[in-house]
Amino acid sequence: MTRSGRVVFFLAVAAAGAGGWYWYQHRAEMTAAATPARPVGAPVVAVSTEPAQRGPLPIEIIANGLVVPEAVVTVRPRVDGQIERVLVEEGQMVQQGDPLFILDSRLNEAILAQQEAQLARDRALLARAQADLVRYQSLRGEGYTAAQRFEQAQADAASAQAVVRADEALTSQTRLAIEFASIRAEMAGRLGSLPLRPGNFVRQAENVGMATITRIDPILVQFSVPERWLGEIRAAMAAGGEGPLVSVVPGDSTAPPTEGRLIFVDSTVDTQTGTIMLKARFANPERLLWPGQYVRVTLVPRIEADALSVPAAALQVGQQGRFVFLMEDGKAKRQPVELVRMNAGRAVLSGELRAGDRVIVEGAQRVANGMRVMERRQGEAPAPQRVSQATP
């Protein structure tokens, strides 16, 4: 390459380098202008707050319960006989007095006919004996008959009357046996399985159950609570009225709770578990509660008139105990508290906390004592919790 060619080459390389440097500088200036400046100082955490509230709040005792029927009746025969008809189906709802089974009663009907004929004969004998008694009584007054004959007439009339009463008792017993051949429901409820069908012979002495009737409405829920609540429960029961309010929800249901009343407190505390057994009664016309079903129970023995509470999410637990974060002058303040109880998603607290103090509910896990905080705007999503930060 000649000397003039080398000069032209070096001039071209220099021009290209100058253009590249200018492009790099221009791009850096544009990127810096588009990137927002980093805030100076400690970051501000967006949080959601709610005021601490003071006012009436029910005391709730939470437990697990079991639905139990108030009564179960086993249907058994009261006379011997063969089943002629089954008038109901398994699982059917019945009312008190509804016919369930019909037994063959032809033998008892024949016996009744025989007893009624014997009763008619004995009544005729009684009428004759009474007529003789009247006749001998009139003759005795005139001296035509001996006293012994009159006494015999009295005895014959009394004996005939006793025979008639015995016949009447026998006919009543047979009629009752015929009535028992029609087996009826002794209470309203739901039928269980029916192990016997038409053609089976049943005997009173064998004590065989023909069916079971379970009362569904009303129904009971049995549950146990720790003995520390015994004083509250006894005071609520002693107050009179319908009894403390109890609400239940089946374990697999999202339906509204069913409300009832506490009706029974066991006479002793279970020393092995330290609990006491209770029962509540519920109206169950729609049969939402079923015998043997497990339910979540909430018992309200009374309403506390002046309870200080915050949302349960605001309560934090540290090495030094429980605390909440207050939002004061744009900063988070750690405030120690004591937990009294939990109630329907709220924590009832005691300590140096006043009604109206704004406690941090959402974002409390991302703040520390003295950190700058701000109220999150409505509809703004919470910032994700930062786990690690890369070094720039």
From TrEMBL:
- Which GO molecular function, any one, fits this protein according to its record? efflux transmembrane transporter activity
Q: YknX-like C-terminal permuted SH3-like domain: from which residue to which, for each copy?
A: 307-373
Q: Which residues form a coiled coil?
A: none
Which stretches make up the Multidrug resistance protein MdtA-like alpha-helical hairpin domain?
112-177
Q: Which SUPFAM superfamilies match?
A: HlyD-like secretion proteins
At the top level, the lineage of the source is Bacteria
| Main location group | membrane
Name the family: Belongs to the membrane fusion protein (MFP) (TC 8.A.1) family.
Q: What is this protein called?
A: RND transporter
